[in-house]
């Protein structure tokens, strides 16, 4: 499990705004400051859109960003 994964209880029943498909956890590659990271995020299998919640972006992702920039 990825450290950035949103708890399942918070996202049950979430659907893609574009096509209406239910979101599922998918392994996603993210790139930042030349580094490539594999994380597990909610996404749409049909549209390939990935959801990054505000809580995740301002919380754990922000913390990781600060650690990488401090190096």
Describe the structure.
With 71 residues, the protein is an alpha+beta fold. The chain has one domain (8-70): Ubiquitin-like (UB roll) (Roll). The protein has 3 helices and 3 strands, in the order αβββαα. It has a 3-stranded antiparallel β-sheet with strand order 1-2-3, with no helix packed on it. Strand 2 and strand 3 form a beta hairpin.
Set out the fold topology.
Elements: H1 8-11, E1 24-32, E2 35-43, E3 50-51, H2 54-58, H3 60-70
CATH level-3 fold name: Ubiquitin-like (UB roll)
Radius of gyration, CA atoms, in whole angstroms: 13 Å
Quickly name the level 1 CATH class. Answer: Alpha Beta
In round numbers, the mean pLDDT is: 77
N-to-C series of helices and strands: HEEEHH
Total beta strands: 3
List the strand order in the largest sheet. Answer: 1-2-3
Main β-sheet: number of strands, strand sense, barrel status?
3 strands, antiparallel
Main traits of this protein?
71 residues, Ubiquitin-like (UB roll), 28% strand, 3 helices, 28% helix, alpha+beta, single chain, three-stranded antiparallel β-sheet
In short:
This protein has 71 residues and is an alpha+beta fold. 28% of the residues lie in helices and 28% in strands.
